TrEMBL record:
It is a multi-pass membrane protein. It holds the Pfam family Ion_trans_2. Gene3D superfamilies: 1.10.287.70, NAD(P)-binding Rossmann-like Domain. This is Voltage-gated potassium channel. PROSITE patterns: RCK_N. Residues 143-263 form the RCK N-terminal domain. PANTHER family: POTASSIUM CHANNEL PROTEIN 2-RELATED-RELATED, POTASSIUM CHANNEL PROTEIN YUGO-RELATED. It comes from Corynebacterium guangdongense. Keywords: Ion channel, Ion transport, Membrane, Transmembrane, Transmembrane helix, Transport. The keyword Nucleus does not apply. The chain crosses the membrane at residues 45-61, 100-125. It is found in: Cell membrane. GO terms for biological process: monoatomic ion transmembrane transport.
Length: 357
């Protein structure tokens, strides 16, 4: 039944079957040195004006070498028609000196002007080709990345936490049908894919089968279930972390294949309740959930010298142990002693202190 349900959300065209050049408007690869097209045009226009002015000054200071006495306006006119290769022929160099200067200075300036003009045209014509090559290279090399489906409030917060925890922006892919949201993601240096996270072809071009983790953060619970089903079908080994608004839908996400489910409405409700009684507790919890400042909750590998010790006696403030993928809280019997291969869940004291890896 689930495959038939998902089929309703699929379009007639499978994006994953399209060539790379057809995905220019679907996949956005951030360009570190990206410049506004208007800025590029203004810069080239400035260079062209400098070349024209340079030739005009040469002609003006050597005005006696031309077929008529030149005013500065005449020199500017001659420079314009000369470097643009229009060449009306009404003003021409007649002396040996003027002709030599034309050969040595004005002709190279004319060539520079033509190259500048051709370069501007080629830049426009090859922009799509450049983007197509970037997309092709990215699709071949992307591995162990994290996909965030939905770039609303929850998705942006998830990305902020990932970046603050040291993940490179190039290793985060955002999927969203809203181009305005994708524009914000691109400004953070993230790779973007335009489309719905419920569609298999969109997930495929985002490299979901090679992803390390997928964060599902839509605005509705039914969409979260469908997205989880689609992701788990294509990526059996990826870690799926999903957000759900209502706790009664948690089991649906877990049955659909989510490894971890965050209940957003209940979490917010608890914080609101705590804020009315003990606002300082809420302040501290917000501090712990903000990895880029103050305290934060982190995870690290256990050192060889810590094996066998009680985690309560370690230098870090321990909250629990992660053993074979299972979390054991600090007061549980399984967390009485640290074993080889365990990871420590602890409170990181400063933003720069990453603990041991």
């Amino acid at each position: 039944m689930a495959p038939r349900f998902r089929e309703r959300f699929r379009g007639d065209i499978e994006l994953s079957d399209l060539p790379d050049h057809a995905l220019v408007d679907v996949i956005g690869i951030p360009n570190a040195g990206a410049t506004s097209p208007w800025a590029l045009i203004a810069r080239r226009f400035f260079y062209a004006a400098v070349i024209v002015l340079f030739v005009a000054l040469i002609a003006y200071f050597d005005q006696e070498g031309y077929s008529e006495e030149l005013t500065f306006l005449d020199a500017l006119y001659y420079a314009s028609v000369s470097v643009s290769t229009t060449g009306y022929g009404d003003i021409t160099p007649v002396t040996q000196q003027a002709r030599l200067i034309n050969i040595l200075l004005i002709t190279p300036a004319r060539l520079a002007f033509v190259i500048l003009l051709v370069g501007t045209t080629l830049s426009v014509l090859t922009e799509n080709s450049r983007k197509s090559l970037q997309i092709q290279r990215w699709r071949k090399t992307v591995r162990n990345h994290t996909i965030v489906i939905g770039y609303g409030t929850k998705g942006r917060s998830a990305v902020t936490a990932l970046l603050a925890d040291g993940l490179s922006p190039a290793q985060i892919v955002v999927i969203d049908p809203d181009r305005t949201a994708l524009k914000r993601a691109e400004q953070q240096g993230l790779v973007t894919v335009h489309g719905s996270g419920t569609k298999a072809d969109v997930l495929k071009i985002a490299g979901v089968s090679r992803a390390r983790a997928v964060v599902i953060a839509p605005s509705s619970d039914d969409t979260a279930v469908l997205q989880t089903l689609s992701v788990r079908e294509l990526a059996p080994s990826a870690m799926i972390v999903a957000s759900v608004r209502e706790s009664e839908n948690q089991h649906l996400l877990e049955q659909s294949g989510a490894d971890s489910v965050v209940i957003s409405s209940e979490t917010a409700g608890r914080l609101l309740g705590l804020a009315t009684v003990t606002p300082t507790v809420v302040e501290m919890m917000e501090d712990l959930l903000s990895p880029d400042e103050g305290f934060s909750i982190s995870e690290r590998a256990i050192g060889e010298d810590e094996v066998g010790a009680n985690p309560r006696h370690l230098a870090d403030i321990a909250l629990g142990l992660v053993r074979s993928g299972e979390l054991y809280r600090i007061d549980s019997p399984e967390a009485e002693a640290v074993e080889p291969g365990d990871r420590l869940l602890y409170i990181r004291r400063t933003p720069g202190e990453k603990g041991r890896d």
